[in-house]
Design a protein that fits this description.
By secondary structure, the chain is mainly α. It has a domain at about 20-40 and about 50-85. Helices cover about 40% and strands about 0% of the residues. It contains three helices and no strands. It has helices at about 20-25, 50-80, 85-90. The protein is flat. The chain starts with about 20 loop residues before the first helix and ends in a 5-residue tail after the last helix.
């Protein structure tokens, strides 16, 4: 969900941002507004793609590894502030 700060109609031109009208864009030489995806040449043969369950398992593995890395970063930052480990902060000991 977008906040009011994300309203693109309220953007102001800056050194890094300039709004162009559709007419300005299409008037350019070789203008092309088609959305295209860069192709991975190693995946040109659809018959050699891994099975969907293999792809899903690889995605899960990558996401779990990323979460572990972020957890380690969070713990390091908390320890640097003297707050203890991430587990201690997230789940205080029961009395």
């Amino acid at each position: 969900m977008r906040s009011e700060d994300d309203d693109r109609s309220k953007r102001v031109e800056t050194e890094r941002f300039k709004a162009y009208t559709y007419e300005e864009l299409t008037a350019r030489d070789k203008a092309n507004l088609d959305i295209t995806w860069l192709r991975d040449p190693s995946l040109d043969d659809a018959d050699n793609l891994p099975a969907p369950e293999v792809l899903a398992a690889e995605i899960v593995e990558d996401l779990q590894a990323a979460l572990e890395e972020f957890a380690a970063i969070a713990e390091t930052l908390q320890q640097a502030r003297g707050e203890g480990s991430a587990e201690e902060v997230a789940a205080p000991a029961a009395d």
